[in-house]
Structure formats: structure tokens, C-alpha cells
Amino acid sequence: MTRFFSSLFILLLAVQQTPAGAQQSDVLPMQSDAVQALKALQRLDQRMHTIGYRLVSANAEFCDINVPHIGILLHDLNQYGDKAAARQAHGFANAISINAMAPDGSAAAAGLKLGDGLIAVDGQLIDEMDFDAAKLAVEKPEYRRIAAVKARVAEAAADGRVTLTIMRAGLRHEITVLATPTCPSQFQIQVNRNRDASADGKMVSISSTLAEYVLDDDELAAIAAHELAHNLLKHRDRLNAQKVNRGFFGQFGKSAGRIKAAEIEADRLSVWLMANAGYDPQAAIRFWTRYGKQHGKGIFSAPTHYRWKKRVKLFEEELAKMLNVQAVDGKYAPPLLLASRREP
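Above: the chain sequence. Below: its structure as C-alpha cells.
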């Protein structure tokens, strides 16, 4: 990690952990640094959101389930410990605002902008929404409202469109956005010192440190596509059904073999997802070659994963297969997704 992003990590933790009752004088000394850190994180969020949206929208026709997506990422002032720094960094025209937006998404086409504050969804004021406390109990308290609002927007968009009432420069606007069908997965950047990436069946998470390690968006897309592949192939559910141990003993025996098989499938599918979204699948080879040479014994080198040279060979095999597939409207039908749709 570079010195700047090491400092950024420490500052972001400080911003997130500032006690809710702290006085302004308690946080002012680091205010400018905290604002810089939050803006840097927002840039990562924007990159991740753009890449994720392109991956799930471009591959929607090959997924067995589609969900509505309008191309925005919301955030809540409540999720920031240092609210003064958050307001300065992000504006927050309202407590819930647009943090990131896919440039080619329907929200951008409809005229929504970064920083727009969300007041109502299809006429229902956010401040008057009834939230399901039981469903939200799994979320940290500061993330419960934003989780509920995101779910409400998705629910409202299920019929193909949603009208958002927003606040911008002190004025209210009603903007109707058409929903785009996409594969079912969300994406997030997690503030983390480690170079980590994971998928839980619904969410793709990439650490801020790993996102900063990549050289370009194609390499970040390679990581995101691999984790997205896990979600689309329902690997978590499949491994749970096989009673796979994900702890220490998951590094041995049948559990290790089944986890490795899932990792191989995710690698194979990832380059097809990238190509369909307009990212260079060769970036997967570039990333793992560089990473493997620099950190061969580090992340992703457990018995449950191929070592980097085998992974590169696997990518090369998949790209050779792709050359023998006829693209339709610039898209290649991924064999693994087609096979998964035929499974009972």
C-alpha cells in the first residue's frame, strides 16, 4: 500500500468511528484530511459501481434471473461517524443522496446527478416509510435506513420505472427513471488493509487496498467478474448444500476440492462476463501474472485456489474457446451460464 492510501485507510477508519456525540472541536483538526479521504473513497465507489453495472447489465440476457436496476448507488449521512466531514465531502442535499452513478445507466440518462438528495420514491416520503425491523436486524444500525431505502427503490422499479423526488440546489424535482434488467448482484468497496475480494451470493466486495493495487479499470473488472461469477453460479448455495467447511478444515480433503472447483468455474466464466461488458479479458492474465510474481504466497494462493501460472493457463484456454464462438450483437454466450440455466 502506498503511503497516501495507508494514511487514507487510517483516516477513513477515524471518520467512520468518530463517536456520534463528539463535538465539532473534537474532529476539526483532521477535518481536511478526512474530507480528502472520503472523496478518494467516493472515487473508488464510482469506479466499482460503473464496472459492476456494466457487468450485470451486459450479461443480463444470459442470467436465469433478472432484477431491475436504475444505475445509482445511494448512501446515508447516518453511515458516517464524522457527519461534518461527510457533508463537506459529499454535499448531501438530503440525508440520503446519490453517491455514485453509472454513466451509461438509465438514471444518468434521465438527468439525475451525483449529490442529488432523495426525498421520496413513487411519491412516498422516505421520512414516512415503514421499515421491516426484523429484516433490517442483520444490518448495523447506521446502515439500516439505507438498506431499507435501497430495497424500496428496487421494489418500486419492479414494474419497469420509478419516480424519484430529489432535492438539488435547494429545489425539488420529480424524475422518472426507466429500470434496466440486470443480473442479480450488487457491488461495494470495503475499507480494508488487506487485498481481499469476496462474494456472498448477493454482494461482491472488493477491498479498498486491492482496488488501488490494480493498474486500470480492466484489471478491476477482472476481479469483480470473478466474484460476480461466484454469485451467478450460486456457488455459496451449492457449497452449503454439500456441507463444505469454509474454516480451517476447508483447506483439506473434499471441502478444499469442492471450493477449488468453484474457483476454477469462476475464473472460466469471468473472462466471458468481461468481454460482454466491453472490458479486455486479457487484463485477467495481466493482473494475475503481475500479482503472482509479486505476491505468489499471498492472497488467493491457498490449496483452494490454483497458483497464478495455472490460472493464467486457464484464462488462455477460455479465451481460445471464445474465438470459436460466434458473437451475437457483440455478445458471447457463456457456456457455464447456459449450463446452469439447464440444471434443475
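The chain has 14 helices and eleven strands.
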